[in-house]
Specification:
Blueprint lengths: L3 E4 L4 H11 L2 E2 L2 E5 L5 E5 L7 E5 L5 H17 L4 E6 L18 H9 L5 E5 L17 E4 L2 H11 L3 E5 L5 H11 L3 E3 L1 E6 L2 E5 L10 E9 L3 H12 L6 E7 L5 H7 L4 E5 L7 E3 L2 H11 L9
Parallel strand pairs: 1-2, 1-5, 5-6, 6-7, 7-8, 9-10, 9-13, 13-14, 14-15, 15-16
Antiparallel strand pairs: 3-4, 11-12
Length: 302
């Protein structure tokens, strides 16, 4: 039987695109919240005897994990031959060590909560700052995809004379990979974080780059404070309004609006999290990875 793709709420467009590329069926899964906050989950499409692929970005994971687990467990109970998860953004990856006594290492705990209900996992650029691979915390087979080539393609096509700028040391891996693929120079700035919403960024002399368009590249844009601070420094240095590129459009609170107001020339993200800033499509990359996980190769447009 054809594979069935079931999107959790907010992931319908990506799931439909993947289903079309794979020659799979795009199914329906509904989630209803009771007045007391509990979740009611229903698989509207039959799953017995077929592989099921759940599609769910795990930004705001406290609200999304339980419906996802309920959906995966129900698919198993109703006879799905396998349950895979396409999770373009994988939450709870930052707390990967115990920095202070008594802290929960939530990345590992979160993995143990999700592991029992899925057979495989596909994600994009998880935050592996202190981990070498997802295999250190996830027991299921995991495919990690990288957005850098797609971002580089977009920059080459859309940005004249780009100068890649990494807002902090952690973004250095993104900047170097994207810059190499885009055949553009790059700078990596230094960041000092004073709190969740207080960041100081130091910018080297950039006067010699005045004829180029700065492109800030980061993996996760959450509060956007780092990018906002960097945009201000670059504008004060006399550079053009920077293009801000992020892999994952978390945009907590008013972050997107604040970044726009800071003077960014354009804000662009990949479609790992549905957001109006999405301009870089990773569906072809995800579809290839899903196809490799399906028990019988699916056919469809590529």
């Amino acid at each position: 039987m054809r594979p069935l793709l079931l999107p959790l709420p907010g992931n319908e467009a990506l799931a439909a695109d993947l289903a079309s590329r794979l020659g799979a069926e795009s199914g329906i899964l509904t989630v209803h919240r009771f007045p007391d906050g509990e979740s009611h989950v229903r698989l509207e499409s039959p799953v017995a005897g077929r592989p099921v692929v759940l599609v769910c970005a795990l930004d705001r994971p406290d609200d999304r994990l339980l419906p996802l687990v309920f959906a995966a467990a129900t698919a198993r109970e109703l006879g799905a031959t396998a349950v895979g998860l396409v999770c373009p953004y994988l939450g709870y990856m930052r707390q990967d060590a115990r920095f202070q006594s008594g802290e929960a290492v939530t990345s590992a705990i979160f993995a143990r909560l999700l592991d029992p209900w899925i057979d495989w996992l596909i994600t994009v650029d998880p935050h592996l700052h202190r981990r070498r691979s997802l295999a250190e915390i996830y027991a299921v087979p995991a495919t990690v995809l990288h957005a850098a080539p797609a971002i580089a393609d977009w920059i080459r096509a859309a940005v004249p004379a780009p100068l890649l700028v990494g807002p902090d040391e952690e973004s250095g891996q993104w900047v170097s990979a994207v810059a190499a693929a885009a055949e553009a120079p790059c700078l990596v700035l230094e960041k000092t974080r004073h709190g969740d919403r207080s960041v100081e960024v130091s910018v080297p002399a950039v006067e010699r780059w005045r004829d180029r368009t700065p492109v800030l590249v980061d993996d996760i844009v959450s509060t956007a404070r780092t990018m906002i601070e960097t945009v201000g420094h670059l504008r004060r240095a006399g550079l053009a309004a920077p293009v801000c590129v992020g892999v994952h459009a978390v945009f907590a609170g008013h972050a997107w609006r604040d970044l726009q107001a800071a003077g960014a020339g354009r804000i662009v993200t990949c479609n790992t999290i549905a957001h109006p800033s999405n301009a870089i499509d990773l569906a072809p990359l995800l579809a290839d990875a899903v196809r490799a996980r399906l028990p019988v190769p699916a056919t469809g447009r590529s």
